[in-house]
Write a structure and sequence with these properties.
The longest helix is centred in the middle third of the chain and has 32 residues, at 174-205. 27% of the residues are buried. The chain has two domains: 16-265, Cytochrome Bc1 Complex, Chain C; 272-380, no CATH class. The protein has helices at residues 5-18, 31-50, 60-69, 74-101, 109-134, 139-150, 159-167, 174-205, 224-246, 276-284, 288-308, 320-340, 348-379, and strands spanning 20-22, 218-220. It has 13 helices and two strands, in the order H-E-H-H-H-H-H-H-H-E-H-H-H-H-H. Helix 5 crosses helix 6 (139-150). The chain has a two-stranded antiparallel ribbon with strand order 1-2. Helix content is 68%, strand content 2%. The chain has 380 residues and is mainly alpha-helical.
């Protein structure tokens, strides 16, 4: 049979409508759909804003101010785009934690590939958000970009060359802004390709649940889960648009309404809230190279997690010790992020170091022990 666009559309539609979905899935499994909605909003609003943005160190800040004041509905698109990044990371972190909780990387090779595709999406999203945060060239975003790009100089032999290639010179300049603008424009489409791969892998074996597969029945995706996701979209949009219209600057930093001044360093440089965890690690280690290594191992943990969390006991009813580890792990992450937003004075500095040491102990020592105890209690 000849494959046409109409036939392809009909095949995909029938697959989505009749896709067998576990009946035990709750609203935590709507996070993936909400992330897709956020990604579409970010791409659409980003394309609209790119028509007026000027990637020039003298004009970038004023071009964004002009969008908000002179362009019709420009303040809405800017508010949706800037707050959309924060909401995207809220949903992304929740989706990641849910995947860890239900051990989405276990059971099969496809599930493992599904997990790795999600990790790549997470890392690409961090890169996209970082270069996008630099573009307004406010006082805080400028200095945050200076601090982060300087980290590459800590790498032996190739570090300075990487930093100079990013800057297009010897410091953050016009060339840097053009490079970051290009990356910020391209990366969402690269992320979309990995999202498409993520969906293919997901639909090949279905969603992972809190229970064993034999403990749940399947129903068609439409109408049950279709309307559930629509309801989740409506709730999300109510909260999101309330923030955009009434508190558009709630999740931002006030110093970003000051034009970047390379001669004046802010008293307290702090990135966006979704980078505070990584920032706390970097500034808590006295040696710059060791700080970069710790950050690398933090991201490497996501790739090693399927091997650290090796126990294939899947039912939520018999994973008592894993649950204890998980909530301590989340508390540790929140504590480190909070400390990342504090000034680099005592007692916050030493508290950050203690929390980070505890974080790595949780990952590489406590987690395997918790799995071993769960396995023993299950077979006993």
């Amino acid at each position: 049979m000849r494959l046409t666009s109409k036939t392809l559309f009909k095949t995909i539609t029938n697959h989505l409508i009749n896709y067998p979905t576990s009946i035990v899935l709750n609203y935590a499994w709507s996070l993936g759909s909400l992330l897709g909605l956020c990604l579409v909003m970010q791409i659409v609003t980003g394309l609209l804003l790119s028509m007026f943005y000027v990637p020039n160190v003298e004009l970038a800040f004023y071009s964004i101010e002009r969008m908000c004041r002179d362009v019709k509905n420009g303040w809405i698109w800017k508010g949706i785009h800037s707050n959309g990044a924060s909401f995207f990371f809220i949903l992304l972190y929740l989706h990641l934690f849910k995947a860890i909780l239900v051990k989405s990387y276990s059971q099969s090779t496809v599930k493992l590939l599904l997990w790795y595709s999600g990790v790549i999406i997470f890392i690409l999203s961090i890169a996209c958000a970082f270069v996008g945060y630099t573009l307004p060239l406010g006082q805080m975003s400028y200095w945050a970009s200076v601090v982060i790009t300087n980290l590459f100089t800590a790498l032996p032999y190739i570090g300075e060359q990487i930093a100079f290639s990013m800057w297009g010179g010897f410091s953050v300049s016009n060339n840097t802004l053009n490079r970051f603008y290009t990356l910020h424009f391209i990366l969402p489409f690269v992320i979309s390709l990995f999202v498409f791969l993520h969906l293919i892998l997901l639909h090949s074996e279905g969603s992972t649940t809190f229970f064993d597969k034999s403990a749940s029945e399947n129903v068609p995706f439409y109408p049950y889960f279709f309307y559930k996701d629509i309801f989740a979209f409506l709730l999300f949009l109510i909260v999101f648009l309330f923030i955009v219209f009434f508190y558009p600057n709630l999740l931002g930093h006030p110093d970003n309404y000051i034009k970047a001044n390379p001669l004046v360093t802010p008293k307290h440089i702090v990135p966006e809230w979704y980078f505070l965890f990584f920032y706390a690690i970097l500034r808590s280690v006295p040696d710059k190279f060791l700080g970069v290594c710790y950050l690398f191992f933090t991201l490497l943990f996501l790739f090693l997690l399927p091997f650290l969390d090796y126990d294939y006991i899947h039912s939520i009813k018999v994973r008592f010790y894993f649950w204890i580890w998980f909530f301590f792990f989340i508390g540790n992450l929140i504590g480190i992020s909070w400390l990342g937003g504090q000034v680099t004075d005592e007692p916050y500095y030493i508290m950050s170091q203690v929390q980070i040491i505890n974080f790595f102990i949780d990952l590489f020592i406590i987690l395997p022990i918790a799995n071993k105890l769960d396995k023993q209690s299950f077979y006993d």
